[in-house]
């Protein structure tokens, strides 16, 4: 199946292009970008022109930053294309609701992807937890924004979500593996004095769940989820890639997250179905709405 | 039908008690409050005791502040009672989703009320706009927090929503009368230096919709919505109570908002139905998530 990739930046080069190239389902038929392109692939600067000229391409995958993504998605849906959205699926919840309604009206597939849910340990963690009684969940997501988003000021702009850009990956895993819904009960957000979005967050949820997100972590990076149950303990390390149950390795393997997303998109298109789960974004919006605010040192890249 | 009223504060005395007293459908059978009571009505201090002892009361109406409301609602639902929620229906969206799911599971009615939708001009405004093409919508909601929430520090605490406490009334009307869904595209929020929630907000939505909320308005108070269409202009004044179409009075009348809510609740219980529309709260959460932040002068009552 032919796919057009829109937004040829870091995430496209690092993940989308290799995942499409390695897949038997997909052919990268066009790119749309102001400056980027992929060798041997038709490159458009003008999105409208691509949609108008390349009616042979039924699927559009959007990996540009969240702020402009809605307009691109709506155009694709209204042009009868199936759409795959990078996370987060919108800069607001209303955007997600609108896109879901428009895709249904147009009879096309919309897939709001959460790449971390495709990490190696996630499916077996979910299966193991399905019949357990959970007593405590601890999420620690600490990374260095300078390493992962070098110079990307958009992450601190309104709509960029700040530390929730990585933190929503943790929330996408937690909401996938836990057998019960959770809800935020308190939050403390740390805003750099010169920025509109937080650089750190401390979240308390119902059901013994808590999370610490921090973007100021130099040295070793930490993406861990620990779940304590009445029947043992589960640890997910490395952003869900490595599962440990009661101290014993239970699943691990090379990164296949984006391969998993494109395989799922192929299934959805074939089945004429959509997959739009806004739950991780609901928790982020709730954190902004309910959180108390602390102003911290200005941040510069 | 017997109803228990929980949280005997300003809104209960001003609105709920008279609306119940004037209704042919309802009997105020109990109150629950730390300090308040209503003459001639059984007064409980202990909510659990009321639920356990008064199994003859099938409906609980919650008018306490949003922060504790979820726990009270969940207890009532799990005790098999129908529940009526003051606005906002939760301090988070996850709370609303959880309550809706629990009510469905328990087979009881949940009514997330929006009293401003019952204002006199709202239903005729919705009917008039149904076939119009909207070009511009301007919302101006400016009131004096000292007059309407004297000394109520909870409105500035996390979960109290600040100026969105009245602003969500405007959003509940806008989302009711407009024939199309809208989505936030930008917001500026003004936080007093000593408070966790905004005292003013400037919102830009899709489809030509904008809103200004301000809680520092002394003198005349303003709760206006203007809708310009290709076939004329509609004005709602006084929080929806007074409708003007193309400059001519079209609907007005005394305040019957809470009477309308209790009449609707009676219908819902009889029909075995629920009415939980979180859309106004979605826009508030989106504003917190997408908004840029400006720090303004400290506020004291």
From TrEMBL, chains A, B:
Residues 1-111 form the Gfo/Idh/MocA-like oxidoreductase N-terminal domain. InterPro entries: Gfo/Idh/MocA-like_OxRdtase_N (IPR000683), Gfo/Idh/MocA_oxidrdct_glycsds (IPR050463), NAD(P)-bd_dom_sf (IPR036291). GO terms for molecular function: nucleotide binding. PANTHER family: BCDNA.GH03377 (PTHR43818), DEHYDROGENASE (PTHR43818:SF7). This is Gfo/Idh/MocA family oxidoreductase. It comes from Methyloraptor flagellatus. The lineage of its organism: Bacteria, Pseudomonadati, Pseudomonadota, Alphaproteobacteria, Hyphomicrobiales.
């Amino acid at each position: 199946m032919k796919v057009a990739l829109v937004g040829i930046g870091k995430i496209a080069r690092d993940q989308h292009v290799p995942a499409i190239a390695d897949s038997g389902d997909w052919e990268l038929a066009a790119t749309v970008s102001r400056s980027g392109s992929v060798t041997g692939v038709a490159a458009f600067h003008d999105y409208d022109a691509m949609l108008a000229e390349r009616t042979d391409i039924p699927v559009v995958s959007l990996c540009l930053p969240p702020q402009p993504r809605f307009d691109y998605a709506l155009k694709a849906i209204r042009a009868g294309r199936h759409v795959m959205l990078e996370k987060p699926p919108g800069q607001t919840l209303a955007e997600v609701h609108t896109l879901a309604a428009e895709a249904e009206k147009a009879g096309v597939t919309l897939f709001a992807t959460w790449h971390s849910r495709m990490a190696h340990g996630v499916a077996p963690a979910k299966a193991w937890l399905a019949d357990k009684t959970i007593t405590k969940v601890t999420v620690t997501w600490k990374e260095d924004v300078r390493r992962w988003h070098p110079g990307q000021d958009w992450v601190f702009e309104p709509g960029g979500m700040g530390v929730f850009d990585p933190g929503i990956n943790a929330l996408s895993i937690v909401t996938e593996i836990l057998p019960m819904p959770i809800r935020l009960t308190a939050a403390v957000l740390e805003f750099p004095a010169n920025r509109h979005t937080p650089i750190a967050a401390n979240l308390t949820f119902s059901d013994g769940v808590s999370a610490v997100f921090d973007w100021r972590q130099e040295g070793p990076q930490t993406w861990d989820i620990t779940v304590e149950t009445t029947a043992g303990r589960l640890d997910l390390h490395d952003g869900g890639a490595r599962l440990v149950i009661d101290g014993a390795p239970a699943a691990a393997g090379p990164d296949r997250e984006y391969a998993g997303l494109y395989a799922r998109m192929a299934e959805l298109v074939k089945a004429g179905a959509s997959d739009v789960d806004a739950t991780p974004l609901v928790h982020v919006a709730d954190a902004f709405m309910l959180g108390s605010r602390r102003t911290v040192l200005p941040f510069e890249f």
